[in-house]
Input
Amino acid sequence: MIHAIEVNITGEWRPDLGWEVTCSWQTLSNDSLQSVRLYNNGQQFMIYRLEKHGPSRSEVFQTPQSYMHIDCAITKDKGKEGRCVMLLEPYQPNVNDFTYTCEVSGERPMFRIEKKDYLVRILVPPSNATLTSQYQDGSSPTRVILNCSSTGLPAPTLKWTVNEHKLDADFSGRVWNATSKLWNVWSYLSYIRNSNAKVLCSPEVNSNNEIIKGIPAEFNSASRYIG
Output
């Protein structure tokens, strides 16, 4: 299907910054830009009009939970082509998924309109688990203390298994990292050393009832640690 105005939206997670979503457009050769309207879950929050704002417009929208910066600019005469770039930086971890809509309108007399939706999913899959070990050589039998860590959004859960049998951690914790915009999580497990035991620490995130798993870290008493 050929549209009078072509609109495309792409998005990605940018480490240490947040979500970047770009809406680009291209009108027909005999048309020009009238306006770009941006929506959050169906509610318009910004409009860019070429004849009013000129070749570009930038706005900042702040809430206690997030910082949103919008930068719209034309890249061709009369706004025949251009883009609006949205950067969403979470201040706090309780930001919800939302639908971001970009609606582009051509000029009179036709006022051709095209819009696209993009689901901004507040999800960063868990990073590969990392594992460190400490032997309590003074104990008999020898006890091993393992520390596993990962990052992600929402906060990953760290699951321990020994030879595929589930074990509860001795202690787990998490902290929000305002620089990376991710949860840092860690978990400790203490168990009696067994040369035949294979210990796995597996990170996973639950997002909208979907389980997203990261790459686990393995500890083997014979070979110490396998990343």
In short: Residues 50-53 form the longest helix (4 residues). The two ends are 49 Å apart (CA to CA).
